[in-house]
Amino acid sequence: MSYQTLCVLGLGYIGLPTASTFATHGLKVIGVDTNPAVVEILNHGKVHLFEPGLRTIVQAAFRSGNLVIKDQPQAADAFIIAVPTPFKEGKSANLNFVTAAAKAITPHLKKGNLVILESTSPPRTTVDIVAPILEKSGLTAGKDFHLAYSPERVLPGQILRELIENARVIGGVDESSAKAGKALYSLFVRGEIILTDATTAEMVKLMENTYRDINIAAANEFARLADHFQVDIWEAINLANRHPRVEILKDWIKVGEDRCG
Ligand SMILES: NC(=O)c1ccc[n+]([C@@H]2O[C@H](COP(=O)([O-])OP(=O)(O)OC[C@H]3O[C@@H](n4cnc5c(N)ncnc54)[C@H](O)[C@@H]3O)[C@@H](O)[C@H]2O)c1
Description:
Layout: E1 5-9, H1 15-24, E2 28-32, H2 36-43, H3 54-63, E3 67-70, E4 78-81, H4 96-105, E5 114-117, H5 125-134, E6 146-149, H6 159-165, E7 168-172, H7 175-185, E8 193-197, H8 198-229, H9 233-240
Parallel strand pairs: 1-2, 1-4, 2-3, 4-5, 5-6, 7-8
Antiparallel strand pairs: 6-7
Helix pairs in contact: 1-3, 4-5
The structure holds nicotinamide-adenine-dinucleotide (NAD).
């Protein structure tokens, strides 16, 4: 499996570094964003986000001639969806951006294409929501085209390094979809690429985020208590972490402000 062209939908903290990294590794990339301001800024050679090293790689991607920015998708060998998945009131996931992106891909979908959902999404989103939309093309997921979910694990501030070095989970709607995902990301990922099914990969992301939130919340509470009792929080954490099965986070920030969607 080899890919020549890639369409990345959503040019934010995840999509723009991903699109630029693929472009600097030789793929022809169409970066798509529905926000006209984002398209205009990027087409003027500027970058609308701050992330260390991002401007440099975006400029390198443009210089290579491999990156173009558009306001809607075009035909490509592979598609990556990296659009927002905010909470709705009541804390359920708002999947409107994901469904809009899948709908926009459908008219361009061809046999043999690969579609990857990277947006943080609840278990079964790929199978129950994205697949039926794409199958309106008349093609069947897992048979005529590959479909996979691959969660993003990067930490803002070190996105460009982690994109390449982190281990990546790829869950396919079938085995060949997961393998197709691996063939794509292998272009630049140096971390281990582990294959599974789509719903397991979504569950993995849910567990990772929940684990991080709980641990950050615990560290915050300890800091609040340390303040109250006039205890040095760093000394207390270091001493508690001498317990063989305790590892209180030291690199915490407030839950809710953590952008690691
Ligand atoms: N930022 C992180 O550190 C991080 C880490 C892990 C996972 N994630 C997840 O990755 C996903 C993307 O997050 P982000 O931080 O890049 O978001 P972001 O808000 O920075 O960027 C998303 C971009 O998508 C665009 N967009 C919205 N609908 C679109 C559509 N239908 N077609 C094309 N573009 C569209 C928006 O205009 C925006 O520019 C989310 O699900 C998030 O939870 C983010």
